[in-house]
Structures are given as C-alpha cells and as structure tokens.
C-alpha cells in the first residue's frame, strides 16, 4: 500500500512553470497605477491575519487595512509591501487594500516622486534564484571589513 501514497498524482498542474507563465502576462498588460482621489499609498507594517494588516500610509497615518476579497485569494501581502489603499471618509483609521505593488513598481513610484525615497523596498521574489544574489552582497561587506 505504501506505493500508492508516493504516486505523483497531480504533480503536473501545480508546478512553478504554470505560475511563471501567468505572471508574465500580468506584467505586460499592467501599467503602473497611481493613486486617485480618496486613495493613498501605504506600507504594510504588520500582518494581523484574517485578511487584515496594519499599514503606515504615506500621509503619516497608520491605519488598519483590510485586504479586499478579490486580492486576498490571489495576492499574498507581506509586511513591508507597498500597497495602494482606499480610504474611507467616515472612518479615517481604516482603509482597504486595493492592490499590492511589486518591488519594481514600488521603485517606480519612488522614481516618480509618488512615495518618499526613504521607503524600504523588500524584494520578495518567490523564485528561488534570487537567494544567491543576496549572499554576494554579504560577501562584499566582509571584503570591506577585511581592508
């Protein structure tokens, strides 16, 4: 009976390749979205679970943000992510996360002066390949120390 549990039954569907393909089209058609009236850029400060998080909005207010259902299924929001939130006029301490910016988009927002350049951008690429680069940086530091 053990043989059965090891059978790679639905391996083919859930692999990384499928996801990568999907992401490519996403990137192409999505241009950078700027905030509109009643919206504000924010940086997630901590995740509260249950589709909620605390975000420091760039207008200086920390708000409790709720991740919209549409986003919640698709986008994994992490602390430090740059997000666009919709403000609620009647509840200034609450907001809804409308979309999450990728690291590239966040850098563009800085470039366009939409968010301050003191903003920390976290690279959270799900692809494993990025790990090596980060290590190189550490080596550089050690080399500097040795001098």
UniProtKB/TrEMBL annotation:
Record Gene3D superfamilies: Nucleic acid-binding proteins
Domain S1-like: residue ranges: 28-102
Basic residues composition-biased segments: 10-21
Single Gene Ontology MF annotation: translation initiation factor activity
Database matches in SMART domains: eIF1a
PROSITE patterns: IF1A, S1_IF1_TYPE
Pfam families reported in the protein's UniProt record: eIF-1a (PF01176)
Keywords: Initiation factor, Protein biosynthesis
Region (Disordered): 1-29
Role: Seems to be required for maximal rate of protein biosynthesis. Enhances ribosome dissociation into subunits and stabilizes the binding of the initiator Met-tRNA(I) to 40 S ribosomal subunits.
Stated family: Belongs to the eIF-1A family.
PANTHER family according to UniProt: EIF-1A (PTHR21668)
HAMAP family according to UniProt: aIF_1A
Name by which UniProt lists this protein: Eukaryotic translation initiation factor 4C
Organism of origin: Griffithsia japonica (Red alga)
Organism taxonomic ancestry: Eukaryota, Rhodophyta, Florideophyceae, Rhodymeniophycidae, Ceramiales
């Amino acid at each position: 009976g053990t043989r059965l549990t090891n059978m790679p039954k639905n391996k083919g569907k859930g692999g990384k390749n499928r996801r990568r393909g999907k992401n490519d089209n996403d990137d192409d058609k999505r241009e950078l979205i700027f905030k509109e009236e009643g919206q504000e850029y924010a940086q997630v400060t901590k995740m509260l679970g249950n589709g909620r998080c605390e975000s420091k909005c760039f207008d200086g207010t920390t708000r409790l943000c709720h991740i919209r259902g549409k986003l919640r299924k698709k986008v994994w929001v992490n602390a430090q992510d740059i997000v666009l939130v919709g403000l609620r006029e009647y509840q200034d301490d609450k907001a809804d996360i409308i979309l999450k910016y990728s690291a590239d988009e966040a850098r563009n927002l800085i470039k366009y002066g939409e968010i301050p350049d003191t903003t920390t951008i976290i690279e959270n690429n799900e692809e494993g390949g990025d790990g090596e680069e980060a290590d190189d940086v550490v080596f550089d530091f050690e080399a500097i120390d040795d001098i």
